[in-house]
Design goal:
The structure holds 2 protein chains of 2 kinds. Chain A is mainly alpha-helical. Chain A has 16 helices and 2 strands. Chain A has a two-stranded antiparallel ribbon with strand order 1-2. Chain A is globular. The radius of gyration of chain B is 29 Å and the shape is globular. The chains are: A mainly alpha, B alpha/beta. Bound molecules: iron/sulfur cluster (2 copies).
Chain lengths: ~350, ~550
Amino acid sequence: MAAFFSPFISKPDTVAQIMLRVMLALLPGIAMYVWYFGPAILVSIALASVTALATEAAMLKLRNRPVAPFLQDNSALLTGWLLALSIPPLAPWWLIVVGTAFAISISKHLYGGLGNNPFNPAMIGFAVLIVSFPAQMTHWLTPHGLGQVELGFLDQLRYTFLGSLPPGVTLDAITMATPLDTLKTRLHLDESVKQIFDMPIYGRLAGQGSEMVSLGFLAGGLYLIAARIITWHVPVAYLGALFATAGLFHLADPAHYVTPLFHWFSGAAMLGAFFILTDPVTGPTTNRGKLIFAAGAGLLTYLIRAFGGFPDGIAFATLLMNICVPLIVLYTQPKVFGKKMPAGKNGGAQ
Amino acid sequence: MRTLFKFHGGVHPPGNKTQSTQQPTATAPIPAKLIVPFRQHAGEAAKPVVQVGDHVLKGQLIGEPAGFISSAIHAPTSGTITAIDMQPVAHPSGLPELCATLIPDGRDEWVERKPTDYRAQPADELRHLLRMAGIVGLGGAVFPSDIKLRPLRDHPNKDIGTLILNGAECEPWITCDDMLMRERAAEIVQGAEMLRSMLGSREVLIGIEDNKPEAIAAMRLAVADSGLPFKVVAVPTIYPGGSAKQLIRVLTGLEVPSGKLPTDIGVQCFNVATVYSAWRAVAHGEPLVSRFVTVTGNVRQPRNYEALIGTPLTDLIALGEPLPDTDGYIMGGPMMGMPLPSTSVPLVKAGNCIIAGSKKLFPPPPPTLPCIRCTRCAQACPADLQPMDLYWFSQSKNFGQAQAFSLFDCIECGACSYVCPSHIPLVQYFRFSKSEIRMREQDKLAADRARERHEYREFRIEREKQEKAERLAAKEKAAAAAKPAEPPVVATNPDAAPENTAQMKIQAAIEHAKEQAAAIKPKNTENLPPELLAEIAEIEARRARIRETAKSDVEPPKE
Ligand code: SF4
Ligand code: SF4
């Protein structure tokens, strides 16, 4: 009975729980990652988690805020995880540390901390890394069974922290360009989609292994909708717009434009649809606004993938749409109870 | 099956209703002392018509209605009036009220009760009777029922086609309407027919949430027995489905337009307990001196009581046997009720429920975090508002924007606060902003009136000056009349005599001032029907306390 005002009861939900459940929903995707690409991703996630918490605590201290309640809200952890999942798992340790620290300190706390940042922190972290360290950001691991050599866990650890590979193994032997990237390069070399897809790195839907990771994220995302942690608006509008745009190009010229399904299951599309664009803080608050926001991001993702200079488009699509959020929200305000019905329908009251 | 409609949002807090419905309603014993406030209704307090030392009978008038929106107050039992003074009451403002203290003589002896056949009485007689019987809305708003039964102010001939009985009782823990419907269904139905005939309604809908199957069955049986064509409708259990506008929406599909009343769309809505009391008042000549009240929460014997108005809550609480870890009491439900400042306050007509609280039942909310814009509040809001935006505007004292985003359509149901994962006391911010805005508008209005007066005075002085000049001119003219060659002075202004010009200027100034006043007239608080004004007055009363506590409690989390 400590509350002095009604309501005296509240739903047991807390920010920490919501964030935690989002992290739980990432687990199927992470499991697939480990299965197909080895445990290196776990190291990145651990590194990102530690950096995120440390940076968060330091920033809270600097800003003279209570450390404990904010550190327990799990939001920094989630940012770290999302960033770790967006960059190559076999990366030098400082890459993920720099990216996470930047995401938390600059793009979250300098804007006022939890709830106040206009840009998705994980995507800012990603953007900074890909612009500053483009080479390191392309060392994606070859999925299980496709590479000439496979690194054991200890070897992966040694590379991450010491930068050394086992004797006789080159970086090229264990990493590859992503399926999206390969597609783009090969298309430039005038190969047709069909020829390219005969390469062993492609699976049924998209890239070997990475398509399964995407399926894992899809499963986790559906759980988020079922558990009412996110609404359907963003994923449906995002995947819908991506599908529609990709579909149009594919129909017009199937030899040069891949199927929309390939786009769905490549790169970070599923992660973006269910986990990144659904970030409440940096997205619109109205339902119609969510549809516009996510559809815009879907369109931009496609354009960047097909015509832009970066291998994947989620990060920049998200950040560009983040800029539009205030305007979108302003123009999509829902009608209030009692101001909804046309005068005639309501007994001629007005 | 009737087609039901939905309203946006709503929440499903745990009902906690079974505890207090295990046993039939008991009659609470007559206490050793009764404290009867003279204001237990929206509007003006009743005027005392008894004196200290008077012996009164049960049901005797002790306070008569004073003013259009007012109601009568009666002695709840026979006994002696020992004091008429200011006493603390359970009112959100925390301000004391004028109360009569009555020491019962134990005989519980009625005044002469005159049953009336409502069919033989014109509606205005019946309205007067209800007013003098102290019948007010027992759902919580305690608005005088006679006023809700008046013909429409603007369209006296327009029908109130639909009469709705509100038996939804959507707040958790409260079961007094549920038990009343189970136990007094026939009289509620009779009362409904009486009110229907007064309003001339063609249709009567009785809305009850589907978590009360016994009440629904009892009411259906009573309707069937009466042979009346009323419809008992089971509506989905969802908070705040018992709020009048939301219930009307569910039953009829109509939305009461913003700032209007149900009657504007041909609907009137009464709580079932109000209808029951109205029936007792007319058919049995019994004024409102008791009501059903739920005593529940952290008590050994949760139960409903039919208790005399004026019974000290301590007595009622004692009947429930509170558990040792009880650390406070809530008057009303946990969603919209208020904490009791003290248990010595009396039961009033608005008192539907007393909940004993403990750390376990009502744990203190976790610390407030910043809004993460998760929109759970917007998804829960039955008024389709965007609470996170209103919160942002309220917190930054940007009241103009808050108003532009329909702050005044907030029904203060608390659903948004209930779901917020950051545990922001959203509704508290909205109450605060509303009262701040009303206060500023009043200040503005007062300033404007002062300016109007000032401008008028300026022009009066100006006019006097001019009149003087004109008299002077006229004199000169008369003097100059001797020299006919010169044209008259006034001829230079052929359209209007100087005097007229001055008058027109004054008129224009007044018009201008009036226009200005109209332009800044608070959009939300003026020109409202009496029901809403009363509601506002009620909320207004909370202001003092809210503002006090707002300073400490409702500030954003400390940096
Ligand atoms: S529920 Fe709370 S945290 Fe979520 S948007 Fe509303 S105010 Fe913000
Ligand atoms: S208190 Fe107001 S803003 Fe909050 S849910 Fe109820 S109506 Fe909506």
